[in-house]
Amino acid sequence: MLYGAYAWMVFLMVALPAYLIILFTKPLGVRRQIVRRAARLVFQCIGVRLTISGLDRLPEEPHILVVNHTSFLDAIVLTALLPAAPGYAFTARQQFRRQRLFCPLLRALGLIVLRSSDARHLSSNIDRIVKALRRGEKVVMFPEGGFTPIAGLERFHAGAFVAAAKAEVPIVVGALRGARTALRPRSWMPRRSPIAVEIGTVLRASGADRASIAALRDNARRLMLPMTGEPDLTA
Questions:
Q1: What is the pLDDT of residues 142-158, one digit of tens each?
Q2: Domain parsing of the chain, residue ranges
């Protein structure tokens, strides 16, 4: 509990000044560099070791990086470890608009706000991601959609793979390990645990038809599963 309280104190001391600076900084690239440095400083001060492997596999061109979703820390970890220039845009559901404290910050960092997961909004959500990719963005997506208290890899939604096929950009398979232990689901008490990110295979859709997209999705999941070190929850 003492460590958790200390971790939250450090987070607030670093995050609040960074938040104000970002809101009054215009270039998107500079904003992303500021938040990356702030995230790295937080983990350094609380003694959480971050590592990443396979950075050389990330394409220079726009792409979608798909990563397993394990904790509320996932996006912060990826922000700290992925290149800040030009940086990555994350996706989030529309409920972030109701969180008035975080919404200006997330939008300032290029967040792609998606509508609800209802099938009626699927096409418009795909279009938003495709537009971001076509204007040169690199995008991070969690194809499981969310995370549960149970460790393991869930089924993948097809959205990221449809967007990649439509925009004709590659899918990069990545994996997070350790974030679930550092901040367990349904808990707000951080623990000291090393966190690692691995960048794996680069894939391309063979077409934009349903069979090609399903094959791309299933191949990405098959490659990601052993990288996570967690069980297959669909077995």
A1: 999 888 889 999 999 99
A2: 2-228
Beta strands, E only, the chain = 50-53, 64-66, 88-93, 112-114, 138-141, 171-177, 195-203
Q: What is the largest CA-CA distance in the chain?
A: 53
Q: Cβ of 209: how many Cβ atoms within 10 Å?
A: 11
Ranges in the chain, pLDDT < 50: none
Any idea which residue has 């077409």 for tokens? 207
Architecture per CATH, domain 2-228, reads as: 3-Layer(aba) Sandwich (3.40)
Going by DSSP bridges, is the β-strand pair 195-203/171-177 parallel, antiparallel, or unpaired?
Answer: antiparallel
Predicted TM-score (pTM) of the model is: 0.92
pLDDT of residue 101: 60
Is residue 55 helix, strand or coil? helix
Q: Are 32 and 110 in contact (CB under 8 A)?
A: yes
